[in-house]
Fold each of these.
Amino acid sequence: MSTSTQQDRSTSQGETQSASLVPVLWQLQISHYVEKVRWALDYKRIPHIRRSLPPGLHIQKARELTGDTSTVPVLTIDGHSTGDSTPIIALIEERWPQPPLYPEDPAQRRRALELEEFFDEELGPHIRRAFYHELLPHPELLVPLFTHGDPLAARTLLEQFPMLRAGIEQRFQINAATASASRAKVIAAMDRLEREISGIGYLVGESFTVADLAAAALFYPVARPPEFPYPTVADEDLPDSWRAFLDPLAPRPGSRWVSEIYRRHRGQSAELTTGDTNKAPRPDAANGHSTGNGEPVSNSQAAFPDLAASRDRLPAGTTATREHDPA
Ligand SMILES: N[C@@H](CCC(=O)N[C@@H](CS)C(=O)NCC(=O)O)C(=O)O
């Protein structure tokens, strides 16, 4: 989506004010658009807080934060919330230019942004529709991806699942015919990806840019790179119909490229969580869900060079952790 859709607004949310100097990423953990922004934050080693929202309610929360964007990701910085992954990455790039995601050369930059836009618009919605069409009939597979090991949240979401499923199907116009058309769009996007990969393995120029990041993040539900750092549906649990779509794509150069880009550039999480030894799930300030918590990073100063310098600006008791080990 173009940067003209950027939505900034001051927020009066207590939880964002209390940590106003630390960026807060509002997310659905499984969202590939969220993965795009998470990767940018991690790549630039920007210590940040993540708040997972319950599916469905995330729409209202995103609107409340931004004014009129009803999707996640939303990023709150210094009390201002921005919606939509493209302007969020533009903002991140402006505030934290190193390491760069935008090429310096203006022509290359234009091409990188054009490719980002292509994958955002021509791949993202179609992969989501194709995925949900196969997975929504299997709440037992989807619910854990939204509730992060919280049994109460999982029970509640299972009970409400028929309503959620109807809402998602309506919102994203999911039916057999649209899903089939979207599968064709995913294949077309992979064809284009394969045409764009250069001899040295990047989409633009000679290094990793926002074009590679967007393509790889948005393709993750299909390419299923081993380095995707969050839980996904296990191979053996995939519905046969979804596997029938994925299997022929797996050996393609495009899928192998996604895995290679993840392997080379995904790196570690720069998420901050409260408590340096706390391994219990952390209550989500927005809704009482938990976001999950991971291993404290023992060499946090080495892994997060900016952290020591910015520690006096962090909320009390905050430390850097990996959110999850690779699934
Ligand atoms: N163009 C947006 C798309 C984000 C998006 O579609 N997010 C989904 C989750 S995958 C969402 O929140 N959808 C809610 C809705 O469309 O109502 C971006 O790049 O951030």
Amino acid sequence: MGSAITRHLLKTGYHVRAMSRSAEQGREAFRRWPEGRTALEEQRLTFISANVTSPETLPPAVADVDVVIQAAQFRGAPIEDPSTGNTYMDVDRNGTLNLLAAVGQVYGAATAGPDMVRYPAGAPRFMYVSGVSVVPDSPHVWVRAKWEAEEATRGSGLDYSIVRACWAFGPDDHSLNRLLGYSEILPFVPVFGRGREKITPLYVEDLGRLFARMVAEPDAARNATLPLGGPDVFTMNQMLRLGLRIMGRPQRIFHIPKPVAKLQGALLQRLRGRILTAAAVDFITQGGVTDPDPVEKCFPGF
Ligand SMILES: NC(=O)c1ccc[n+]([C@@H]2O[C@H](COP(=O)([O-])OP(=O)(O)OC[C@H]3O[C@@H](n4cnc5c(N)ncnc54)[C@H](OP(=O)(O)O)[C@@H]3O)[C@@H](O)[C@H]2O)c1
């Protein structure tokens, strides 16, 4: 998500300071892309190493910017591993709280209440990539983490925009590509559950395009929480069959019943180097269909 947003901001003419835990890895990723190389040479694209779970690293990352965009997620999501701090609460919720606190530290003028910072003119806008399934009071930890990150953003005193994105696909995605990639090594493509959940899959470049529009048109989605998905409603089965057809693969989909998958997850999460958890099975099998109207209202013709 962050790379797509960066590409579209650069295309629109902005300067971008991209943050991740390894500036060098980020730089290498963008050097592989011709426009990225040019942006690096022109110094319109710079990188900074910072960690959303280490508050002391964040002030230099957010200083002297017009917009802060939070799109960090722990490696291996949705498979949480508390032993390494790779959890939704640590990275998604606390990471967002830490970033907001860093903005408060760098730009805040005066404390307006117990938790509220008052911002002078010139403080950055804050944008957050949330998820399609986010609602209050969910039993799922990833939804609670994102809801609390959203609430902190809405209550921060900064101008904000939140995008609740649907399942995204694109050349670098680690999810759909992995599933379809099984067709190269297996006689079937394994899927948890019945594959009948409805989704509106989102082309990642459309998310990048929306963020570039939000940055360029500050009034259009000021203090809005917008759902964003693709134009078509698919079931997971339909999406996979379409992918297999495009790849010219004859494989069938093999459904692993969800209770069996959750049992596998419950066992595997006890091993080191977790490759599955029961909660990740719930995450993977969640549906999510978005309403296009709110985006259309803010950005007619988007
Ligand atoms: N992908 C989807 O289909 C989808 C759908 C809906 C919502 N979202 C949301 O969109 C956001 C981005 O997801 P994504 O799919 O783009 O994830 P991703 O491909 O895994 O990218 C996450 C980025 O965060 C960085 N990162 C990880 N831990 C960090 C830390 N502690 N401090 C700073 N940076 C850190 C990673 O770089 P390093 O590891 O090098 O630091 C990487 O650049 C997440 O909030 C996710 O929940 C994604």
Amino acid sequence: MAPSVSDKRDGPADDPIAKAKAALQQTNEPSYPFYYPYFDVEEKFPPTEIFEFIDPGTRADPAKPHLLNPNTTTKDISPYLGTEVTGTQISQLSKEGLDELALYAAERKLLIFRDQDFKDLAPDRQIEIARHFGPIQRHPTSGNVKGYPEFHVERPIPEYRGGDRINGTSWHSDVSYEKQPPGTTFFFILDQPETGGDTLFLSQAEAYRRLSPEFQKRLEGLRAVHSAVEQAEFSRRRGGPVRREPVETEHPLVRVHPVTGEKALYVNQGFTRRIVGFKHEESEYLLKFLFDHISKSADFHVRATYRPGTVVVWDNRLTAHSATGDFDKVIRRHAVRLTPQAEVPVPA
Ligand SMILES: [Fe+2]
């Protein structure tokens, strides 16, 4: 009888299965092992405390002379959100330039910076730049970097794969359960598939504008509960860390941006659970409508694409996003987020 596949596993060096495994291991070697996700179940953080926040965008020169220099090229991806920027090096920006970056991110919602040296800076310098935009959130459950809990590491094989869903689309606004959720957010790619692995983004400001004035009026003044409980339970079930007890926070359904004054919907399927003061069915009904509205309105969606050196900066207060699970599992996608927290959301 011919040997079975399993019989051949420990075969000679030219064994095709052993070769394939070795090749797979090689493709899975991270280019930046320093940022390999680190999980310490013993790591604990105290509850977050309210801090005073002044958005750096309020100090910015609207002309943005320190951000957009004569070598800078910008190209809008959609009228509503997203601009690709080349010729500006984030690492070289002065304090004024960083202030202008906050304003530009608020205006365009999403900025895709190409050819950045950001990933090759020292981690302390990366943190220093991001900290200009607010104290950096330390994620309660995700992979971080040993000794640097400010980094949130995007898992090489995203956890949303698997389960019994038809697709992996999962619209959310990062950690919106925090009392002071993130504002200007940084995401830099370390390894990416040749094709695929984009991030979908949408404008929550345009989502709000599309509603009728009567419906807008009904939403204003409402508050919704954003919950960290499921995320913490998911981590616990897998033996992962829960560094801080999960919080549930009420936020306005429509919030106002502190720099631009723009109104935006502030609900997301990832973390928004119920509308305060509504009965269960009423809350379900309205949230389902809003989740459908934002997820189906492709005319204010864009895709952020990645190339080596890409740094994506977005305003978490005005957008929702989702990963795309459209590349083969064996291909490494490795990215890191720095997530400065902003103001207590201002109701419309
Ligand atoms: Fe996210």
Amino acid sequence: MRSLTWLVAAARLLLPAENMAEIQKQIVTVGVTGASGAILAQKTLALLEEDSRVERIHLVVTEAGQRLFAEELGISTGDLKQLPDRVLARKTTKIETLPNKDIGASIASGSCTVDSMLVIPCSMGTLGAIAGGISDDLVSRAADVVLKEGRKLVLCVRDTPFNHIHLENMLRAQQAGAVIMPVVPAFYHHPKTIDDLVTQYVCRVLTQIGLEQEKMYRWAGTPASKKAEA
Ligand SMILES: Cc1cc2nc3c(=O)[nH]c(=O)nc-3n(C[C@H](O)[C@H](O)[C@H](O)COP(=O)(O)O)c2cc1C
């Protein structure tokens, strides 16, 4: 990792700016909250970890988010530093876990280089905190910073049905610059498994931060043969 950082720094000095764009790697913050859908966080971390366009991932999991990892995936909290390895069941190299209570962590400041932030899944509680500018934990503070710095924030909100407060908070966050991406699966790619549903949704989320995925199904219109049948 250190040698990679050194390589990018050296390239910054040696290469013309237009070539830099090709090798500039992304730094992404991933917030995980206590909404249902821990599997979405797991898939997101797996795709980011294996993506050569990504340099580093800051991971912040709320207390309720940790509970959901346990409830839905049977992953115990334990030592937070080891959480990425437990979530992906392998040794990870790019993911750094930051405690949600540490509102003085690097990503709590706009001076820290972060290209984008995903909150996946995003609870109605954290949505409310972000929409209301209540930055009393690291997930909501980091999101606040991403918005104030004009960087990309994607909120993968999950609950159903939505009440008036949820909908107003979504509108407020969207008006402040966030992308509201409710956890709503697609079916036009004929998913056969839960993994098919999850992968397509997470690929769409990653596309929002400029990380287009080869695995993603792209609708190319109804084939002429099918139209003829109809
Ligand atoms: C099993 C379980 C499932 C939950 N699912 C949701 C959900 O889908 N959406 C939601 O907004 N809250 C859900 N909650 C409630 C949140 O976890 C709770 O509001 C929590 O305070 C959110 O805190 P956080 O935003 O700091 O993670 C769920 C809680 C549990 C225990």
